[in-house]
Amino acid sequence: MRKQGIKGMAAVLLVFTMLAGCSSNNSGNNANGAAKDNTAANNTVANTTNTGTEVGDAKESWKKDTSAFTFSQYFYGNWASAYLWKDQYAMKLATEKTGVTIDRKLATGNDDDYLNTMIASGDLPDTIMLDWNNPAVMKLIKNGMVYSIDELMDKYAPELKSMLDPDMVKYHSIDGKLWYLPNLFETKDRLTSGVPITPIRPWFFRSDIYKAIGSPKLESTDDLLNALKLAKEKYPDVSPVGVESFDVAKNGFEGSLSMNFLVDSFSPYLMEERIKDDQQIVEYPMRNAGFIDAFRYMNKLYLNDLFDPQLLIYKQEQYEEKLYGAQYASASQFMNNMYTQYNPKIESTLGAEQKYTVIGGLKANGQDPRYPASRLMGWQGFFITKSAKDPERIIRFAEYAWSDEGQMDMRYGKEGETYDMVDGLPKYKQDILDMSLKDNNAFNSKYGFNDSTLLWRAGEVWDNASARDFKEQQPEQFEAAKLLEKYNFDSYLLGMDNLEPDGSSPEGVINGKVKDLWNKTIPKLILSKSDAEFDSAYNDFVGQMNKVGAEKVEKVMYQRHLEDVKKKRAE
Prior knowledge:
Elements: H1 8-14, H2 34-49, E1 69-75, H3 89-98, E2 100-106, H4 111-121, E3 127-131, H5 136-142, H6 149-156, H7 158-163, H8 166-172, E4 181-182, E5 203-206, H9 207-212, H10 221-234, E6 239-242, H11 248-251, H12 260-266, H13 270-274, E7 275-276, E8 281-282, H14 289-303, H15 316-324, E9 328-332, H16 335-349, E10 356-358, E11 371-372, E12 380-384, H17 391-402, H18 404-412, E13 419-422, E14 425-428, H19 430-438, H20 440-447, H21 460-473, H22 475-485, E15 488-489, H23 506-526, H24 531-548, H25 550-569
Helix pairs in contact: 2-18, 3-18, 6-17, 12-14, 17-18, 19-20, 21-22, 23-24, 23-25
């Protein structure tokens, strides 16, 4: 979820690689007693991070009005039922402290259809949480449907402006204005602090099956293929491979969230190779031989009866049901989800021997993998629409959420009740920490930590606390992260974020056609009956993408690449 173009589920769940046991975004408190109860913790945070305003400062804008107030919010991601405000601890704390309740809504049906219909009709909620690089963002801005954050801060919440990281403001400003607050923007020290970064979505092997086939070496893609053959022979009723379904519109050009592990093995220098300075283009990854080799590998799994074609059309719930039942010999999943969600459930229902163990980085064609581990440029943006009935209260709530006090509230709750300060760092009460590790769904349902304001940002105190707890409480996941970490490289200055053209531009329309063509081509490649059929399907795709004008998009992507580099390298 950390890679360029993270969308939807990828982004949200990779969030948790920043957290220790999904324990990083929390809330909890009483309207009048909250400031007093949290003073010690938050003063510690303020003194350490040098951001926000001092707790108890009467000048904080959000404290000027804490009467009951509800604002509506559309969240782009119909899978995110855990983010709905119910009676979770974190949500109740935010309401008790600020008076604010968020009426958060999800799409019924397809997210893009729902969003586009909403924009076309002009029937917008008070706020929107939307991927900052989604094509619809420019529609909202150009059509005058959202406020700039600057104008609202200047008028109602000047304290918020002083809290914002200058690099973040510079990177995310459009036409000189900041139109949204980006959730999960990481500061430049992120690669050397906090929880070890796992920028890719690894593949795992079921422990008992791996042991039963003789614990063979798994150092290359060929090794994995051979191990899967052994697993199928010994366990014919278990699906050899589990990968999530393919949807280019949602998941980017790799199609499936499960593919980046293979792509970064077969094409370890993909990002650099896409940049063609002599031609002044950034190529579509589908032109890269290594990128296509990753799909050729999936085809090889299919030809060896190791890939179930149903995986191409499985819904998320179907994939998860089989994973919870340990019905795959090898499966792809976000690191944190596997170790705090799936493995604990498998252990409690099926036994510890059926848990999954991470596969280390796989070589392909004799090359080591490389995982682009740039700091996150943000995930979803927090937009305040012109339909908002009270933008003043909303921007002031955002000030609270962004402040050190708000960050500590939503991440750890109330000192003495949900956490204690240990050696200058917050730490959950043991029962809460145990729940986060053993039953993450119950943890989310009861406490809502990670789920309330959705305005997470970096901070030395909580990043250090997360790293400490991660190593202490999840040694297995920590070792897995360290196993993969050696393949990370910092891709930040390559300038490969936010490359795709505005969806409403002529090139954006072409890009949409290319995506649609590629989405239809992926199943043909994976289910090809021979290498010749694979090559024919691929060559047909290249011809069609060229015909619709792909090179025009590649020229625009090069210009956006140069802009991205300039934003990141400018002093």
